[in-house]
Design a protein that fits this description.
single chain, 368 residues, alpha/beta, Gyrase A, domain 2, 4-stranded antiparallel beta sheet, 14 helices, 44% helix
Length: 368
């Protein structure tokens, strides 16, 4: 049996080539009433423009009917019709090929050139499931959906943060969310040396709060970058902690050391050009203000930080009572199971009536 992925584009290309030089004339049939008789059509007006008022040469029709090649679907017949030249595929053979390699067809086709690099950052995944609010749960689900959509369009996507909490990993598996995991935090050594020169001590002469390495005036960063538009006007001072540096270190490492995690067969994107990477932060409405501070701090402490950083802010989720994400999941899961059980009971209650109806129908048939 032939192997390889069948494609509409490959089949259309071969069909147009078989007609000889000229503009493409074939198109894929999509209307249900016509799909009963044909899968592709070369309209009569287009054929007349190609061949004049005469019929399509017989040798051309035979060439189309015997079409073969990489990615070309097997042809059953090709014949002239009032609408034009109609072609029907060997549908059983096509279905067998497709169903025998569903995974290959479900995966996005590898693009000819490397797609854009997108660093997808979801801060909510740094916590534990019990502390996850419903708005953060929404952000997690949106980030997962967005990653799949971007990859389907050829983008090279990297997901941050790597999940540390084992309970969070289990919860994500329940949600069918595919996200990377890690057993240790990112090293902060490269960034920790910068604050010694960049961070300001307490300006009032007092001691810094415990765990705080220093402060940064973010308004100065906005003025230097000319990026005040879009940022909260209340963003001012940022207290830099070890945890904050760990977050930045993970983002920095993800941008600088880009893996070849794009579609199969696609070369890894170069990791030298940080400006070629777009950072997309998917945050809840409660996290937006803190994330704006993190953006500006990254620009302050790392000259190679990507210039393009965007925020996708997920709004609040209304619920009858205050629920954590795991509690909400259990509630919705129980509701779905209950609805499925009720549906099954309804079908079971209807089955005796259906059986009696069938028996009466059979008896009436025998009496006649």
């Amino acid at each position: 049996m032939a192997t390889g992925r069948l494609g509409v584009g490959e089949t259309l290309g071969a069909l147009n080539t078989a007609l000889g030089p000229g503009e493409p004339v074939w198109f894929k049939e999509t209307r249900a009433r016509h799909l009963r008789a044909r899968d592709f059509l070369a309209p009569r007006p287009a054929l007349q423009a190609r061949f004049g008022n005469r019929q399509v040469p017989e040798h051309v029709v035979r060439a189309v009917a015997g079409l073969q090649g990489p990615g070309v679907a097997p042809v059953l017949r090709c014949e002239p019709t009032p609408a034009g030249l109609a072609l029907q595929l060997q549908r059983p053979a096509v279905f067998e090929r497709v169903l025998g390699a569903v995974t290959a067809y479900a995966a996005p086709a590898a693009p000819a050139v490397p797609g854009p690099r997108v660093l997808l950052h979801c801060p909510a995944l740094r916590g534990t499931p019990g502390a996850l609010r419903l708005s953060q749960l929404r952000a997690v689900l949106v980030a997962d959906h967005l990653a799949r959509a971007l990859r389907a369009h050829g983008a090279s996507v990297r997901l941050v943060p790597a999940v540390l909490d084992p309970h969070m990993r289990t919860f994500l598996q329940q949600l069918r969310v595919d996200w990377p995991a890690s057993s240790e935090k990112a090293a902060t050594g490269a960034l920790r040396n910068l604050p010694l020169a960049e961070l300001s001590p307490a300006r009032d002469g007092g001691a810094l709060p415990p765990g705080v390495l220093g402060t940064v005036c973010l308004k100065e960063v906005m003025r230097e970058r000319g990026c005040a538009a879009g940022y909260d006007p209340n963003v001012d001072k940022c207290l830099v902690t070890e945890d904050l540096l760990s977050v930045l270190a993970e983002l920095q490492a993800a941008v600088r050391h880009w893996p070849g995690d794009g579609p199969p067969g696609l070369a890894a994107a170069p990791d030298a050009d940080a400006d070629g990477c777009m950072v997309l932060h998917v945050v809840s409405c409660e996290e937006e203000f803190q994330q704006q501070k993190l953006d500006l701090l990254w620009w302050k402490l790392d000259e190679q930080a990507p210039r393009t950083q965007k925020h996708l802010v997920c709004g609040p989720v209304k619920a009858a009572s205050a629920l954590t994400a795991p509690e909400y999941y259990e509630l919705r899961h129980a509701q779905v199971c209950k609805a499925a059980a009720l549906k099954t009971d309804q079908l079971n209650s209807l089955r005796p009536n259906l059986d009696r109806g069938l028996q009466c129908s059979v008896c009436s048939h025998h009496q006649v």
